[in-house]
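Lay summary. Proteins are chains of building blocks that fold into shapes, and those shapes determine what they do. In this project we predict the shape from the chain. Here is one chain we studied, written as its sequence of building blocks.
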Amino acid sequence: MNSNLRRYIRIFTTLSGAIGLGLIIGVLCSVNSLHMNLLQFTVLLCMMFISLYLSIFRQNQLLPFIVLTWALSPEVRRIIDWLFRTYSEVSIISILPHCISLTLLIPIIKNIGLINKRVKVISIIMGVTLAYGFIIGFPRYGMSSLFELLNYAVPFLIFIYINVCNLDNDVRNRWLRSISFIGVLVSVYGIYQYLILPEWDQFWMLNAGMKSIGAPEPQNFRLFSTINSPGPTGAFLGIALAIMTVNAKWRAFGLIGMMLVGFALLLTLVRSGWIAYIVIILAYLFRSQLKNKMMLLAVLAVIGLAYQFLLPILPGASSITSRVSTLSSLEEDHSFNERISFASNILSSIKENPIGRGLGSTGISSKISNNSGVVTSFDNGFLNIFYTFGLPLGLALIATLCYLAVYFFKLSRIEKEYSSLSFAISVAILFLLTGSNIIPGIAGVLLWLIIGLTFISTTKHGETELRRAH
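And here is the predicted shape, written in a compact code that computers can read:
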């Protein structure tokens, strides 16, 4: 009875904390509309109860639900804004996926003694880095710092959560397949959005002031689907498509599903998403078994033929082909040249302040504060880390990511499935950080999820075999 009582107390405490956090951030950051806030809070409360139910009774379904919430919550926010004809930079719905993900604390706290030593060391490095960033950022940026802390910390909880769960390969395969299903869902809506442009998405485009995504007219903008903007959408779809490509059992709706996700990815016009896909495929191909390599090459051949013969007859083909052509002439690309100039200026700023400016100084969260010293759009992930956390802790975080890539590379000689995918993802992270910081937010959710799968699948016997191999 005492153990049950303690269990319910933990659940109640987690629920109260998550809802309280939602209230604090939502009330401070949302628009002054009582009815709108009540509707958003009702959605938050209902989703929290669903998440708590899954964490207690349907644990295997919790992670897919969390990924789905991260993918769909921006669209829910846009619909609510449209219904009330009130645009809001940040609202209660903005922290919906963060609050849902906090329910992972229940099994983590319950099984904290099962955390693997490597995971524990990585968690300490991440925890110290985030704590430092929050301490130096909160006095200056306030709620922006708290919001950015959630963007980093909540996806990382998934990494710890997977490690303490005693789950079999079937569950891991279902999780990866669920990412494919969500990718197809996001792609189908995105294609519909590109062809029709629903009123709520048009309302958001008119008020968000993101001129870089194009005109608020059908087929004249870069696809962003249910996610915040084309950048995160491209990263999400690139990772999802790579998962679908490398292994048939992780694939949703077969080749048709892959074609849908691939076409939506092309319509985002996000080169980093295409690069992520290519890097993951090549890295996985390098470490996978011969049989898998032959199957993967066959799938890539089909995709190549589809691109060659089907793309020219599809809507948006001219924009896609012109965007692809810039990959071979980056020196003439305006966006690329702007990134070079931006990196040069930020390097000078980092030299002037090597201790970092703290969480809230960059990214979407910086919109919450009215501080003139923030950098909303940051076009280099490595420099973003140094700019935020300073040189010492920034180097520690990047060194950890490099260590993971090396560790998975060695481990993939023994375990060819999850470790090969984790190695591919780790390499992709290092490549993508040259363009933008993909560690926080929805991309971070997928990255830490995939990395975590290898730790849980190898900690019981893989490390022993790895030591023997040396």
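What the prediction tells us: Residues 236 and 443 are 6 Å apart (CA to CA).
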